[in-house]
Amino acid sequence: MQELGSRVDAGSFRDRDSRVFLTPDGVYRALSARGLRDFEALGASKLFAQAQQDGSLVRTQLSDLEPPADILPDGAAAVLEHERIPFVSYPYEWTFGMLRDAALVQLDLLDAAIGESLMLKDATPYNLQFVGARATFVDLGSFEVMRPSEPWIAYRQFCTLFLYPLMLTAYRGVSFQPWLRGSLEGISPVEAAALLSLRDRLRKGVLINVGLLGRLERRQSATSAKDVKRDLAKAGFKPEIVRANVRRMRKLVTRLRWKTSKTAWTHYDDNHRGYEQSELQRKTAFVEAAAERASPSLAWDLGANDGAFARIVAGHAGHVVAMDADHETVEHLYRELRDPGQTQRNILPLVVDLCDPSPARGWSLAERATLTERGRPDFTLSLALVHHLSISRNVPIREVIAWLASLGGTHVVEFPTREDPMVVRLLSAKRDDESHPDYELGFFEAALGERFEIRNRLALGSRVLFEATARP
To answer: How far is CA 170 from CA 91, 206, 257, 261, in A?
Structure first.
């Protein structure tokens, strides 16, 4: 067997039969003897070939790579090689539509698996990743041979991590991201019942999946999980019954809709506002030329808004992560990107507040990584961003520049001057003693030059664009 230096993935330790590790050349999964038997059953099914072909299952093949020593408690019997995901994201960074589509992919795979006498051990959104706007199931270790008379054991987990967050947004108009970021276990049935109104509880599917499950959980609080599983097994669940339950859940999830409303940012595109048509064309040309020169493997668009410039960069990049703090704005972008007529498949939209980005989380603060730990960009767009960070969020200009420089690579940064209409609007909301004296073009350009090598500069009305490379 070939042997290379490797790093065990800190977020995949919970399964005794399957664990992911990474090398400079790829992403691999070690399987125990039992895990190998389950994979062989999956590989022999029609599901495996079809799901890899349509992209709902990550492309995977057996490998001859040597796994790290003691990676599994009972030793590794085989290694799988997975296609690498361009940028790892988490459910608390997804939009409503992304979480809903991921739920449907999970349910469709489970439905097909049951038809092949297979089952999924769990039902967590962390088993899926997005390649552009396409949800892909990546945890092949979750598939196992179906056990006789066993129900859908992962039903509760599906509710807490998929169904309840979706209901919270669809029925109450409340973004689910803070709830999922607050707990890796999701929203419990008792919490969901408290969050939904009396009217919501009368909706189809809520009484059984929220109210009844919550009451059962209270009654069984003194009963061990092993006893609960044993009692469920005694009930004699045939595959047809389990499959019917999965299909009912799919219908319920499909009916969930989020009626978005226009917010300050969904109808105000700060990337375009204030420019004459000729100036906008020059800005577009400036961004595209910089992206073409950089030819990045991974690009970030910070404050992406409608994604217009992310699309421009995507024509010259391997993959673009388009981030914005406004959930509704990113949801609209995702809906456009997932449209069947959309040709650009290399843009990943995420809900990210740069002043409060996703932290390291989970066991030993290693299960879920920070943004930069998941991959630093070769090229970064910061259009219509600096004034919001500096004035709205009170981040000093030097701090903004220092953080951008820490990302490395090539940057295109836009600085709206104090005469810019949006800057005037932001400053008007401040007190006289909060005039942000560091927010001046001369100060910004000098501070930028300390951390970056400025390659190009373009003044367009009340805004100035810089193409710059971070200094080592």
So the answer is: 16, 12, 5, 12
